[in-house]
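Handoff note, outgoing to incoming analyst
You'll be picking up this chain. Sequence as last confirmed:
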Amino acid sequence: MKKLTHLNEQGRAKMVDISEKEETVRTAHAISSILVSKEVYEKITSSRVKKGDVLSVAQVAGIMAAKRTADIIPMCHPIALKAVDIQFEWKCDENKYELMIHSFVKTKGSTGVEMEALTAASVCALTVYDMCKAIDKGMVIGQTYLMEKTGGKSGDFRREL
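Most recent structure output, in case you need it:
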């Protein structure tokens, strides 16, 4: 069986030593989503949510979350991020209003930025929920997943949908 990298000789948690890893450009693209009611959708898209511009606030929250990932995920290394971008797209049909959240994170360093991208997308969805819960508490945060990552020893990854 392969040795677990996050356990020390005593079987307790440790942060992995990345001091010998080569610095490379590393990117990650993560996706999350939130299903909202027609009323929430209409209020967000017409800027009529009482708490303010939902997507702008969620975008800033996602960027802040990416920068603070190591503070909330115990084994993550603090990373000097070089870029964070959050993009939104609506997928709507007859009775379904889904906000797709795309986070893109980039660094040049010794470890990847997958967790930063996933955290950013998750916090965006949570922020939309927080800002709109007075309108409808029935919103559903959807699957959150890594879409793509580049760089590093493990190589590139691209999810096939």
